[in-house]
Design brief:
56% of the residues lie in helices and 8% in strands. The protein is mostly helical and 337 residues long. The protein binds tryptophanyl-5'AMP.
Length: 337
């Protein structure tokens, strides 16, 4: 069986980008009988960008409920919280010791902070923590702990998976002695939705504050967010450039190709943006409404979520604990068996 693994950082409310980029393809993959799936809540990653404990706790529940509402079957999928697996930060340290600092200097998230600081004219590492700097190493530990072959993610994560391969190769080379400890993982990207745009046309992202929430706030919040999608100022009757419109791209992520073609034709023929937004809302709502009901029921029952995660953590540790033991031996900090 091939192993599929992915995670979401528990620093905010799940949005449409998380859903189309990661959750939906991951759940589909997990339904194949030849796949062993590992889906998790990246709560140690959340500490990097969020110093609000209540927000992290709330996000943890929201993201767990989202996975389950979207169809994750915990009897088939190993579904857990990163911080319940102490072997992950332990592995992260081992990997840190074989990771070239020069490679981390090139990581997008770190470089973005440095660039911003240059633009502001302050010290380039101003406000940069070691957490942010080493973020890709912790992510490598997430993936390598379970030797995932495939990692369904949005385009923004590709670099992290390339770095994971690099780190895995280096570890195999140094300590493998002919044995390959780590599988080299591959990113799985759904081309059509690799980068879902947000309200303003930039990548939909918590950090840009341009997200459309997946379930939170119900249909009302969805409608209010869709109303805020930026469009040009052409009126009804005037032909719209569908391909240049991020509203159309969001529609496409939720529609079958015939529906998208029809929508494209109607935009070109000049339907008003108000009508277009209503149609987008209806299309998204048709997919989300049944899942939202489940989401709301789960959010009323956090104990059930905690139980599910506790069982998942046990399953995950059945793999992580012996593997970590092997890795400790391989680097020489435990006697060779
Ligand atoms: P995070 O929490 O930022 O995002 C979770 C997943 O959603 C995808 N995504 C998008 N896809 C398409 N369009 C968008 N606008 C969009 N916004 C977000 C992300 O690509 C991601 O797949 N570092 C990761 C979490 C993580 C992880 C891992 C993922 C930690 N360890 C191991 C895979 C494997 C992150 O912060 O994702």
């Amino acid at each position: 069986n091939s192993r599929v693994l992915t995670g979401i950082t528990t620093s905010g409310t799940p949005h449409l980008g998380n859903y189309v980029g990661a959750i939906r393809p991951a759940i589909t993959a997990s339904q194949s009988p030849t796949v062993d799936a590992f889906f998790f809540l990246a709560d140690y990653h959340a500490l990097i960008k969020c110093e609000d404990p209540e927000r992290i706790a709330r996000s943890r529940l929201e993201i767990a409920a989202t996975w389950l509402a979207c169809g994750l079957d915990p009897s088939r999928v190993t579904f857990y919280c990163q911080s319940d697996i102490p072997e992950i930060p332990e592995l992260s340290w081992m990997l840190t010791c074989v990771t070239a600092k020069g490679m981390m200097n090139r990581a997008h998230a770190y470089k973005a902070s440095v660039d911003q600081n240059h633009a502001k004219g302050v010290d380039e590492d101003d406000g940069v923590t070691m957490g942010l700097f080493s973020y890709p190493v912790l992510m490598a530990a997430d993936i390598l702990m379970f030797n995932a072959h495939h990692v369904p993610v949005g385009r923004d994560q590709i670099q992290h998976i390339e770095m994971t391969r690099d780190i895995a190769q280096r570890f195999n080379h140094l300590f493998g002695a002919g044995k390959e400890f780590f599988v080299l993982p591959e990113a799985v990207i759904a081309e059509e939705v690799a980068t879902l745009p947000g309200l303003d046309g930039r990548k939909m992202s918590k950090s840009y504050n341009n997200t459309i929430p997946l379930f939170e706030g119900g249909p009302k919040a969805l409608k209010a967010a869709v109303a805020r999608i930026v469009t040009d100022s052409l009126g009804p009757g005037e032909p719209k450039d569908a391909d240049a419109s991020h509203l159309y791209l969001i529609y496409k992520a939720f529609a079958r190709s015939e529906e998208s073609k029809a929508f494209h034709a109607d935009l070109t023929a000049g339907i008003g943006w108000g009508d277009a937004k209503q149609r987008l809302c209806d299309r998204i709502e048709a997919e989300l409404a049944p899942m939202r009901e489940k989401y709301e029921a789960l959010m009323q029952n956090p104990e059930q979520i905690e139980e599910t995660l506790a069982v998942g953590a046990q399953k995950a540790r059945q793999i992580a604990t012996p593997f970590m033991q092997t890795l400790r031996q391989s680097v020489g900090i435990r006697k060779l068996a």
